[in-house]
Amino acid sequence: MNSMLERLSKEFRVTDITERHPGLTTLTADKDVAETLLRELRDREGYTHLNFMTAIDYIERGVFTLVYMLHNYATKSTLSVHVNIDRVNAEMTSIHTLWAQAWTYQRELRELWGINFPGSPRVEEDFCLEGWEEIPPMRREFDTVEYCERTFTSREGRGTVNPREHMAEIIFPNRGGDK
Amino acid sequence: MSLKDLISPFFVWQRAFEKPYTVGLKPIVERPGAPAYRGFHINMSDDCVGCGSCFTICQNHAIDMVKVDGLEAHGGDSGLRPRFDYGRCCWCGLCVDICTAGSLRMTNEYAWFTTNPDDFRFVAGMENKSWDGRTGGYHRHPDYHLFPPKRIEMEMLAPEESVASFTEVAKGYTEEQAKLEADRCVECGICVATCPAHMDVPDYIHSIRDGDYEKGLQLMYRTNPFPATCGRICTRRCESVCPVGIQGEPVAIRWLKRFIVDQVAEADYARILPNVEADTGKRIAIVGAGPGGLSAAYYLRLKGHAVEVFESQAQAGGMLRYGVPSYRLPDPALDKDIEHIRSLGVEIHFNHSIGRDTAFSDLLDNYDAVFVSTGLNVPSQMRIQGEDHPRVMDGLKLLDDVANGKDPQIGTSVAVIGGGNVAMDAARVSRRLGAEVTVLYRRRIEDMPADTEEIHEAQAEGCIFVTQAIPVEALNAAQSDQVTLKWGEAEMLQDPKGGRPRPVLQEERMHLDTFDTVVSAIGQGSNLDYIPTEISDQLQIKWGKFIPGDYQQMVLNKLFVGGDVANATADAISAIEDGHHAARGIHRFLDTGQRG
Ligand SMILES: Cc1cc2nc3c(=O)[nH]c(=O)nc-3n(C[C@H](O)[C@H](O)[C@H](O)COP(=O)(O)OP(=O)(O)OC[C@H]3O[C@@H](n4cnc5c(N)ncnc54)[C@H](O)[C@@H]3O)c2cc1C
Ligand code: SF4
Ligand code: SF4
Asked: What class, spelled out in words, does domain A2-171 have in CATH?
């Protein structure tokens, strides 16, 4: 495992290699080598299975981190390959040629995060959000609460009390800063 | 229609007579949810503090914070509890992940039948449910946190370095550190009720996230004109109730306050902070230029009243100047606060004692209102024999000398008697003056009224703590410039009524130790001699402290009091709030003639 990681870090400029717990290691790879790296892991290192793909929105840093979770059945080890891509015009090479099921994940990633995978089969089609007209909902700038308030009604009898204001009223009614 | 379509219903009918797979014989065996299933919520209502973080994070607005019978708002708990609306919940579990108290989780129960849809709106933990007491279901993993449980550590001078000078020990946060620490705040506002001045804590912390320090300063001055000071030495009651502190360390509110003030230059204060309103023609006298007096002065002056402060000392600040040592509160920080108050036109008469230079009754006669905040400046007696020995000194005198640049001549071995902040300051100052220091305290370390941080720093700086030690007598030592302290060991006796354990002197376990100086720092009381008896007889005063009514007003309508001489907490922030509240009362009284 270690010699493999050493080799990868040299040959593929892989960084941030961290063992999260025995059997799960994460690492970060550059966007332009990611596809070759994944192929290498599948064909030469025994990571034959793609468990899943997902993304994390690091809006503060202006990137999406794509996560490719791979499994090696022989060594029972899981490798999580992270690839940072630009949030603006977010786009990534499709890997449906490496693992056929990837096209489903990529279709989901396109719908929920707005990340495009040119050439991925049916990637443009609706996945689970039929007729969605908002920005992709897993993007952090999507205001879920606002959307819910606008879209769904509340049952009668709802109503909330603000803890801080409630305490001010009960505990220090005429103190604190001028209103 | 094909033949198959035509006859297939008969095949299905045939099945009706077989033994079913799914519905067994009664009673129906329920299948429990998976161990970490996100099912119905459960809230340990006694542990929940009503912070509302679950409400805030819920992306579906499935939660309301509601009043419930039998729960009252009190320090550290809003008394509100989350009510769930299962018509909107999507079972994401975010509310469980954020729960500051760790009181909320989800059980693995997922079946609930009722004919009334309103039943699905319920206050978890306050209504009996069939899944109460279940242990399975979704818990936040102990290592998974939506906010880091540890605060950003404040960089301090190393103890070897700190004892060598009076340089400020805490270095202050960098901008990066302050932003990270500010990010730990869930902005629930539970602390606001506990802060004696009710500062807008979540709002000024938010200003750090936004990098808008001028806004932060404005927010602080709404309730506290001593932010540079309090950002360093506040007793920070707020931190003791911060819900983030329940499962981790509380947000470093005091250091964040300091950070904001340190970012804004004093020269910019006039532009940023509110200015004085139009002149009202009213005149107010204030006795004492400590934080209580000056806080009142600030808020009264803002309202356009003319304010004169009478101060017996040569400088303003009261105990913050003459008590708190400069390694905790450097003069420039205190001056920054005081200078802004003075810049608004608050006049201070220095070296002017009421009772000596001006009669107290003259103030009542010549001003529209009087605010008194004269503090506690008489050291309490140890009530032991030999207390008047020339090598026994009181802690206030020691600190006062040092603040005034005088050498208190303590020698190289010092015993400090007491366990409060004054004792810690006296001990650490003595270390800085080059002495070996032993602190003697009658109870245990955990009983010490001093701030734990102060105790740790004193220990790190090499002060030796001897606990359960009761001084009995100060005797002449072999050398005339020393003193021998006779002290006895104490056993802690449990109070059968459940009060705090009491130290009992063990007569047979006495010790004699010789020191260059014994510093007594066991508390202080007031000196109200400046008030003539014909006036004080009319006032409510108990154990040397005023007992004010609403808005800090006394029975003499014109007289308002506050600070250490009128409250039980005796810290800077309480004095500041008393001053602010009295200012509000005085303004109201002058405006409408109304009493509190
Ligand atoms: C050593 C020490 C350490 C402390 N550490 C802390 C700390 O870390 N955090 C904290 O929050 N608090 C601390 N305190 C407490 C804090 O300093 C006081 O609570 C606060 O200063 C009280 O303010 P005040 O306005 O009531 O009185 P003071 O600050 O005592 O001010 C009263 C002023 O009135 C003047 N005065 C008195 N009589 C007259 C008169 N007849 N005529 C004119 N002027 C008069 C005095 O000279 C003084 O300047 C400490 C106190 C001491 C002594
Ligand atoms: S589980 Fe999710 S949707 Fe349901 S109340 Fe909690 S935060 Fe809201
Ligand atoms: S987050 Fe936890 S402690 Fe705060 S109100 Fe909700 S259940 Fe109570």
From this structure: alpha beta
